[in-house]
Give the backbone structure.
Amino acid sequence: MNTLQQFISGYGQQLQLWLFISLFIITWNIENIAGILLHYKKWKHAFINAPFILTSIPGQLLLGLAFVKIIEWTAQHQFGFLYYLPFSKSSMILFLVSFIFLDLGEYVYHIIMHKVKRLWMFHIVHHSDQAVDVSTTLREHPGENIIRLSFTLLWVFISGTTFWILMLRQIIQAFTTLFAHMSYRLPDKADRIIGLLFITPNLHQVHHHYKQPYTDCNYGDVLSIWDRLFGTFKKLPANKLVFGVDTHMGKEDAANFIALAKLPFGKYRKSGDDNKQHKSYTMNEGYAHKL
C-alpha cells in the first residue's frame, strides 16, 4: 500500500490526465458503435463543449495550489475528523471513509447547485446540452469549475484527506463521470445490479431529462446510495427521455459557446418559459433514441 501511495502522490495528476484522455477515447468509440443518439453531428457537438476545458484552466491551476497548501496544513496540524477515527493508521480504512465522505460532499454540492438560483445559472450550462454524450463531461462553465473545486476544498479541509487519497478518488471519479455521461444504455439487468451502488448512464440520463421533477433527481457522483437514502432517486423509461432543460431549449442556448459562457449572468427563467422552443426544436432536430 505504501508503494501505491508514493506512486499516486508523485504521479497522481499525470495519471489522472492520461487516464481521462484514454477513457475519453474509449468511451467515444463505444458511442460510435452502440450510442443511443441519432441525427446529431458528433464532432460538431464535441467542438461546442471542448472550449470549456481551456476556459477552466486558470481556475484549475489556482485552486490546485490551494489544495496543496490545505493538505500540507491539515497534515502538519493533524486537522480533520479522519485523524480522530479508530484505525486511523489503516490506509485502507482511511481511503474508504474519505471516499464515502467526499462522495457525499459531491452529492450535497450538486443539490446546492440545483437549488440556489444564481448557482443553478452556472450549472445550467451543463444541463442545457440536448445531446448528452461523453463530451458533455467537458461542458462546465469556468465559474462552476471554481465553485465545484471550492466545495471540494472545503470537504478536504474538514476531513483532513491526504493528497494520495484525493488523487485516487479523482482518478476513479474520472472514470465514473465519463461512464455516466456516455450516449449508451446498459441492459436493464446490468443496470439494476450496478445501479444499486453506482451511478450508471441509465440513471444519469434521467438527471439530464429536460423536465422536472427528473432534473432534480439522481444527484449522485460516483455512488447512487445517497439518492436512495435521501429520496432523490428516480427512473424514467428510455423512450420518455428528452435531454436539455426546459427553460433553455432554443438552439442559441444549447449550441453557441459565447451564449453559453454568458448564460449565468442573464435573467433567471422559470420552468416552462421555453416550452414552445422545445417543441419546435425536438420535432425538427429530434435527437431520437434507438429503442
Summary: Residues 15-284 form one domain. The radius of gyration is 19 Å.
